[in-house]
Amino acid sequence: MTGAMDEIAIEVKALSYWYPDGTRALEDVSLTVYRGECLGVIGPNGAGKTTLLLHLNGVLQGTGEIRVFGTPVDRTTLRTVRQQVGLVFQDPDDQLFMPTVFDDVAFGPVNMGCAMDEVMQRVARALSFVGMTGCERKPAHHLSFGEKKRVSIATVLAMDPQVLVLDEPTSSLDPRARRNLIRLLKCLSLTRVIATHDIHLVAELCGRCLVLDGGRVAACGPTHELLTDKTLLEAHGLEVP
Questions:
Q1: Residues with Cβ < 8 Å from 187, sequence gap 6 or more?
Q2: 181 close to 169: Cβ distance less than 8 angstroms
Q3: The pLDDT of residue 1 is above 70
Q4: CA-based torsion, 147, 134, 180, 122: positive or negative
Q5: Angle formed by the axes of helices 145-157 and 101-111, to 10°?
């Protein structure tokens, strides 16, 4: 189920979060992610999936406690935590903002203070991994949506994170692009947390999954058990794959 059951990558304890208008997004959420595992986070629209992901590298900060490889996530540790936990947004246009693909992928390593030789190596390695070598000088807005998704992942991989967090990675992809992306994610050995409506992706990639509904944990356990529990899934707006 996990790559190293004795080593905790992310630990969340009693996490709650309210938006400024008073809307409760998360309530008393606790979970553990182990090094090397792929954890799926599923639930209906408005369940709190994206809000949870945004806490894992400190984009949002609620009440409770989050630790990344033992380091508490707070304002004093954000730089370290964000080098360890890379977040891929649902919409690649939220991630790609530089003039060229090279600039987008190089942005993280440059801001980490890497020497230019290392930046070049990181960019080349990340683009090669996602199958986008040769697109370095293209503007991201000239790419297809699926290509943008892959470049978005490359921007995070170039920072050499220990955890990859993805929000709806297969949304809006055509069948071929979806299959290619799943194949890419399956090749990664680092810890992954994937929030998605794509139950088939969860069944294929994730050894465990967490069911969120109304900002609360409804269930957490082995994927094959939860995804065959018709009563559980239907109670939380999901379907058996």
A1: 129
A2: yes
A3: no
A4: negative
A5: 20
Look at residue 225 and give its three-state secondary structure. helix
Coil/strand/helix, residue 192? strand
Q: Exposed, middle or buried, 76 (CB in 10 Å: 0-12/13-18/19+)?
A: exposed
Tell me, what DSSP letter sits at residue 94?
G
Q: What is the identity of the amino acid at 10?
A: I
Cα 170–chain centre separation = 12
The pLDDT value recorded for residue 62 is: 94
Residue 2 clears pLDDT 50, i.e. is over it? no
Q: Which of 41, 22, 63 is nearest to 217 (CA)?
A: 41
C-alpha span between 160 and 155 (Å, rounded): 10
Render pLDDT for 92-150 as a digit per residue (tens, 0 to 9). Answer: 999 999 999 999 999 999 999 999 999 999 999 999 999 999 999 999 999 999 999 99
Q: Which of 130, 161, 157, 129 is nearest to 146 (CA)?
A: 130
Encoding tokens for residue 238? 């999901």
pLDDT digits (tens, 9 = 90+) for 89-106: 999 999 999 999 999 999
Cβ distance 146 to 173 under 8 Å? yes
Q: Is the pTM of this model over 0.90?
A: yes
